[in-house]
């Protein structure tokens, strides 16, 4: 009987191959999904895309470091969903993201979407970090899963009210709000800030977030001889308000507090935007600790300037990733606890949350349009280091 022998080299190769298969299989990274909910279509699409771009940069930076969770390699992937800035759509989008098993969500952009969507995330037990929803009510619901990466409107409205009276010396102030939870809430806090500083509200007018003709409300305000007009609403409507004020001869400055300071406003308002003043949560980009480097990275990647909130979306996504790395798991309860305990330096400044989920010690910046550009006038609040 003949006994066949395999060549030693072939036996060694086969053995090595067999041994290598399990190791190769184990080294394949697990994909971890992070949701992004924002308006990707409609009048606010440019801001939604800006948020998506910022979050994607955080994902890319994390993946470049070959991350692992619990000793196992992972790769992060952003799942973007369009909420159209519509509350009902936002709820549907939130459920879609939950059904796709995202570990957390960067979103939504506006408070009117974040509030109803937050219930879906609460029920699923996953963290939601809003990059720009400033309505205080979002974090006043008692949900352990709700966080925000910038200051809220109670503080912003109070700062703006005080600024209108003490710095701009306004004596007869008119208010317009868009009746959304964001705009109305902001206007309410502004009125409180004005009254607390001895100012007088001579008129309050109402529109909705679809209004395009502001002639009626501005004519009424002109009749009240207002020397300052505050608008609680967003850039896409603030720009036509500024234009119509000029056309009607309303000789009063336009003031806003959140949602004005964007390229969209400048494009829509044109020369009629000059002199418009607005408060925006956060430090100006050039004074954020990581702002200049982020701006360079963003423009190199997307060949376009930052629209508004991309750095905050970056920090929101990076915070979810940092929490997962710290927790060593994506198990929802442990991940939420890790987000709540986070204290880390971000592009926009220190990232740490209070008991409600609000950013601790937030800063606000006053901007004014000068020569067709948003120019920093003052920085209020906060104690974060300002990069020179």
UniProtKB/TrEMBL annotation:
Signal peptide as annotated in the record: 1-18
Protein name as it appears in the record: Amino acid ABC transporter substrate-binding protein
Short name of one Pfam family: Peripla_BP_6
Signal is among the record's keywords: yes
Domain Leucine-binding protein: 31-372
Family to which the UniProt record says this protein belongs: Belongs to the leucine-binding protein family.
SUPFAM superfamilies found in the cross-reference section: Periplasmic binding protein-like I (SSF53822)
PANTHER family, per the entry: AMINO ACID BINDING PROTEIN, LEU/ILE/VAL-BINDING ABC TRANSPORTER SUBUNIT
Keywords: Amino-acid transport, Signal, Transport
GO biological process, one term: amino acid transport
């Amino acid at each position: 009987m003949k006994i066949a022998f395999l060549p030693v080299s072939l036996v060694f190769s086969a053995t090595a191959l067999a041994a290598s298969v399990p190791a190769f299989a184990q080294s394949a990274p697990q994909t971890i999904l992070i949701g992004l909910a924002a308006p990707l279509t409609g009048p606010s699409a440019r801001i939604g895309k800006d948020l998506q771009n910022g979050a994607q940069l955080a994902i890319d930076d994390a993946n470049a470091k070959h991350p692992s969770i619990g000793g196992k390699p992972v790769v992060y992937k952003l799942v973007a969903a369009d909420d159209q800035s519509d509350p009902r759509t936002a709820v549907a989008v939130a459920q879609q993201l939950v059904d796709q098993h995202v570990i957390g969500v960067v979103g939504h952009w506006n408070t009117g979407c974040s509030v109803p969507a937050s219930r879906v995330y609460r029920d699923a037990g996953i963290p939601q970090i809003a990059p720009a929803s400033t309505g205080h009510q979002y974090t006043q619901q008692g949900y352990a899963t709700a966080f925000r990466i910038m200051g809220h409107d109670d503080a912003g409205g109070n700062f703006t009210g005080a600024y209108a009276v003490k710095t701009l010396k306004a004596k007869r102030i008119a208010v317009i709000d868009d009746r959304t939870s964001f705009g109305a809430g902001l206007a309410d806090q502004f009125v409180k800030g004005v009254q607390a500083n001895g100012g007088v509200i001579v008129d309050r007018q109402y529109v909705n977030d679809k209004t395009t003709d502001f002639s009626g409300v501005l004519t009424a305000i002109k009749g009240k001889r207002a020397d300052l007009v505050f608008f609680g609403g967003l850039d896409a409507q603030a720009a036509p308000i500024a234009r119509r004020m000029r056309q009607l001869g309303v000789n009063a400055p336009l003031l806003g507090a959140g949602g004005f300071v964007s390229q969209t406003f400048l494009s829509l308002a044109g020369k009629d935007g000059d002199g418009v003043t607005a408060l925006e949560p956060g430090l100006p980009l050039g004074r954020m600790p990581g702002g200049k480097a982020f701006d360079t990275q963003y423009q190199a990647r997307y060949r376009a300037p930052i629209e508004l909130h991309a750095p905050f979306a970056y920090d929101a996504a990076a915070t979810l990733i940092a929490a997962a790395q710290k927790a060593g798991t994506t198990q929802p309860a442990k991940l939420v606890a890790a987000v709540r305990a986070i204290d880390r330096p971000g592009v926009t400044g220190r990232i740490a949350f209070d008991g409600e989920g609000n950013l601790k010690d937030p800063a606000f910046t006053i901007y004014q349009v000068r020569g067709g550009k948003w120019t920093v006038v003052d920085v209020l609040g906060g104690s974060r280091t300002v990069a020179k």
